[in-house]
Amino acid sequence: MPLINVKVIEGVFSDDQKAEIVKNLTEAMVNVEGENMRPVTWVIVEEVKSGDWGIGGQPVSTADVKALAAGNAG
Fold first, then answer.
1. I want to staple 13 with a disulfide (CB 3.0 to 4.6 A). Which of 5, 17, 34, 58 is the partner?
2. Which CATH number is 39's domain given?
3. How confident is the model at residue 74 (pLDDT cuts 50, 70, 90)?
4. If you average pLDDT over residues 35-62, what whole number do you get?
């Protein structure tokens, strides 16, 4: 029984996007393990508080991720 735990920064993904994450990750596991595993494939999307996530020694905020997604990294 696979358990997929995805951590994202709060406020980055809408409820619809999180549902899409669950759907697509379930499909990926079913493609590997077979259709019989669908009912026992668990996906948990956990939101981490903005600023409680760090990359390269620097905290990352919701605004930082949204800027990156928009192509405004810097």
1. 17
2. 3.30.429.10
3. low
4. 96
